[in-house]
Write a structure and sequence with these properties.
mainly alpha; globular
């Protein structure tokens, strides 16, 4: 390849990388400015996450805390001392990144920065997962990239009642799991993805059946059943190990009946149903959770006929699994807890973007 052509190619890829970095940075900033790392919450404090005393179910979500803890142990003493000195100084430009509740503890300052970096890395992984899922349904790179952009920027919007350090990684792993299920080359990656997914959040094991229609189409029923059974066994093993680590920690959530009552109260109380929210520093319309839920459901419905039968079955399985989990175990109005349907939204966005790109393409006249 002549060097001018190679130079142009390098510039194009560099511009694409810069654009992706900007997109991810905007989405991450939207999350961080809205929720930080929940260090102001007594139950979900990041300091308690580092200590291993955070309440369940957050205590189950060990992927990033374990990785951060392992990395922090490799940080030299002098570097950790410098982190603590700067985070405790009166230099506002530096201190604003480490909240007072964390910077006062020397061992927390380093871990806080590492956790911020880890969450940013998972935001990059989420973008890659969204893009890979768009490509998995046969969408060209440009509309798949546009769909990944829209989906990532929407993450802070759906974090209506809470945002957590494991959100981006959960979305990334869900999308990567389904994308791998459509590939004859990479379908065995489902096994390590199941391990990492369960390590990230205990509900991943319930998501595994969503890959069944796709994997059956890819490799046949017997092999698909064997692989997904292996995924389930791996996930169950991971959960068992983590459960043993946190079993002594209390779970302050109410009973299933109390959760259902709270959801009913939320749905029938206008003051709660039409609460305001702030995302990207801008107040959202009243009832943003309801509006977004209806919009996303309408988006899936509008592109339903463009989905193949395996993808439709996968979406229906995700809805059948996620809906009862949402009603029985999740906080009312917390839209991010419909996370198993995020891949369906990403696929719908990719199909929508493909239609828009094809519609806006210049006509080609036969000669």
């Amino acid at each position: 390849m002549p060097w001018p052509v190679r130079a142009i190619s390098i510039v194009k890829w560099a511009a694409l990388a810069l654009a992706t970095y900007i997109i991810v940075s905007i989405a991450f900033t939207g999350f961080y400015e809205k929720w930080h790392l929940r260090e102001d919450n007594a139950e979900y404090s990041i300091a308690r996450v580092f200590d291993g005393t955070v309440i369940r179910p957050v205590a189950y979500r060990k992927l990033l805390p374990d990785l951060v803890d392992a990395t922090a142990r490799l940080v030299p003493e002098r570097v950790e001392a410098e982190f603590h000195r700067k985070s405790s100084a009166r230099d506002f430009s530096f201190r604003q990144q480490v909240p007072l509740t964390v910077s006062g503890e020397r061992r927390y300052a380093t871990r806080y920065y590492l956790m911020v970096a880890a969450v940013f890395a998972t935001a990059i992984a989420a973008f890659a997962g969204f893009f890979a899922l768009g490509r998995a349904v046969g969408v060209a790179p440009v509309p798949a990239y546009a769909a990944a952009t829209m989906a990532l920027l929407a993450v802070p919007l759906i974090e209506t009642k809470g945002g957590y350090y494991y959100d981006f990684s959960e979305f990334a792993l869900f999308c990567a799991f389904l994308a791998a299920a459509t590939s004859r080359r990479f379908y065995l990656a489902l096994l390590p993805l199941a391990l990492i997914g369960e390590w990230n959040k205990e509900t991943f094991i319930a998501f595994i059946p969503c890959a069944w229609p796709l994997l059956r189409e890819t490799v046949g029923g017997r092999r698909a059943a064997a692989v997904l059974a292996g995924c389930g066994a791996v996930a169950l093993g991971v959960f068992t190990v983590i459960r043993a680590r946190v079993d002594h920690i209390p779970d302050p959530r109410g009973s299933v009946g109390e959760r259902l009552a709270d959801h009913w109260h939320w749905l029938t109380t206008p003051a709660r149903l039409f609460e305001n929210d702030i995302s990207y520093g801008v107040p959202t319309p009243p009832g943003v959770a309801v509006l977004l839920g209806l919009l996303l459901a309408g988006l899936i419905a509008a592109t339903w006929r463009d989905l193949s039968s395996p993808w439709r079955q996968s979406v229906l399985i995700a809805a059948a699994v996620n809906a009862p989990l949402f009603l029985l175990f999740c906080a009312a109005g917390e839209l991010r807890n419909l996370s198993m349907l995020i891949p369906a939204v990403v696929v719908a966005l990719a199909l929508l973007m493909r239609g828009l790109v094809n519609r806006s393409a210049p006509p080609v006249f036969a000669t």
